[in-house]
């Protein structure tokens, strides 16, 4: 049995109009083409669908029983096509994104609000987690997209650079270094540095190179969250380092940021997705939105 949607549409049109002429006009086809579709459908089903006479055209008894089911099939298909259109137009859909805690409380909310303003029908779900678990959330399928600093990936994770930023030193406004507009790494020698656990400190010291000789890694106070580091800095227990996108949070703690150079050490942030798994239209739309907003350098001002 080889029944087509065109044949079913022809059947419903004739059943609803009671006329081959009117049904052909509704479907924008010739009457002979419509007649051919009905004959093909009757041949495929092995049933007579219409009782014809010189005065009227009526559904056969069998066709009368089939009509509600065929009409429902076409109605459901119209709903599917309409829903696909909504998804492609970003009128509906959902996006799940995993980001580290600092990104989650500084940069991402404003970006999410900007995307929501353009696509209010798309549901956004933010998963804030530890830096080292971002890719694991992507790999497990818990989220569609992950955003975080550069990390070694496996063959199942695709990584594309999203933006790059330099480190900034953070200190109380009354600190001696706060009187300078810019700092160099040797200016931090002898200072109590509060850094993050994990790869943060190792990568930082490695990237700074010779200029890090005065930074005593073993004397660093390492904490899990940047909010903890900022609270310790506010209490006068040292200074810390973070990205420019965290400026709003730094200012909430009453602290100031100063750029550090010679050398300028940058940290790149990447977008992670699962290889071989196509993003939904909503997720792809959000990814494109992020790339347009962040790749042009606006991340620091968000």
Automatic annotation (TrEMBL):
<protein>
    <submittedName>
        <fullName>LysR family transcriptional regulator</fullName>
    </submittedName>
</protein>
<keyword id="KW-0805">Transcription regulation</keyword>
<dbReference type="GO" id="GO:0005829">
    <property type="term" value="C:cytosol"/>
</dbReference>
<dbReference type="InterPro" id="IPR036390">
    <property type="entry name" value="WH_DNA-bd_sf"/>
</dbReference>
<keyword id="KW-0804">Transcription</keyword>
<feature type="domain" description="HTH lysR-type">
    <location>
        <begin position="3"/>
        <end position="60"/>
    </location>
</feature>
<dbReference type="InterPro" id="IPR036388">
    <property type="entry name" value="WH-like_DNA-bd_sf"/>
</dbReference>
<dbReference type="InterPro" id="IPR000847">
    <property type="entry name" value="LysR_HTH_N"/>
</dbReference>
<dbReference type="GO" id="GO:0003700">
    <property type="term" value="F:DNA-binding transcription factor activity"/>
</dbReference>
<dbReference type="InterPro" id="IPR005119">
    <property type="entry name" value="LysR_subst-bd"/>
</dbReference>
<dbReference type="Pfam" id="PF00126">
    <property type="entry name" value="HTH_1"/>
</dbReference>
<dbReference type="GO" id="GO:0003677">
    <property type="term" value="F:DNA binding"/>
</dbReference>
<keyword id="KW-0238">DNA-binding</keyword>
<dbReference type="Pfam" id="PF03466">
    <property type="entry name" value="LysR_substrate"/>
</dbReference>
<comment type="similarity">
    <text>Belongs to the LysR transcriptional regulatory family.</text>
</comment>
<dbReference type="InterPro" id="IPR050950">
    <property type="entry name" value="HTH-type_LysR_regulators"/>
</dbReference>
């Amino acid at each position: 049995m080889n029944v087509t949607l065109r044949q079913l549409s022809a059947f419903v049109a004739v059943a609803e109009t009671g006329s081959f002429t009117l049904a052909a006009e509704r479907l924008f086809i010739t009457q002979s083409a419509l007649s051919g579709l009905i004959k093909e459908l009757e041949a495929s089903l092995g049933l007579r669908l219409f009782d014809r006479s010189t005065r009227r055209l009526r559904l056969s008894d069998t066709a009368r029983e089939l009509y509600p089911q065929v009409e429902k099939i076409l109605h459901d298909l119209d709903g599917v096509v309409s829903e696909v259109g909504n998804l492609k137009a970003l009128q509906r859909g959902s996006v799940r994104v995993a980001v580290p805690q600092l990104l989650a409380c500084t940069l991402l909310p404003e970006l999410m609000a900007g995307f929501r303003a353009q696509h209010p029908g798309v549901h956004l779900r933010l998963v804030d987690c530890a830096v080292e678990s971002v890719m694991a959330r992507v790999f497990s399928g818990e989220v569609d997209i992950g955003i975080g600093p550069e990390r070694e990936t496996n063959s199942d994770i695709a990584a594309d650079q999203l933006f790059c930023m330099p480190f900034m030193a953070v200190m109380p406004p009354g600190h001696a270094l706060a009187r300078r507009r810019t700092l160099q790494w040797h200016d931090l020698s002898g200072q109590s540095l509060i850094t993050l656990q994990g790869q943060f400190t190792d990568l930082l010291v490695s990237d700074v190179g010779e200029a890090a000789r005065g930074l005593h890694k073993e004397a660093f106070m390492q904490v899990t969250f940047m909010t903890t580091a900022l609270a310790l800095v506010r209490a006068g227990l040292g200074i810390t380092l973070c990205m420019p996108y965290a400026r709003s949070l730094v200012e909430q703690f009453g602290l100031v940021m100063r750029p550090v150079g010679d050398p300028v050490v940058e940290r790149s942030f990447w977008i992670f997705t699962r290889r071989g798994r196509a993003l939904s239209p909503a997720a792809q739309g959000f990814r494109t939105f992020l790339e347009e907003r962040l790749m042009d350098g606006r991340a620091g001002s968000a």
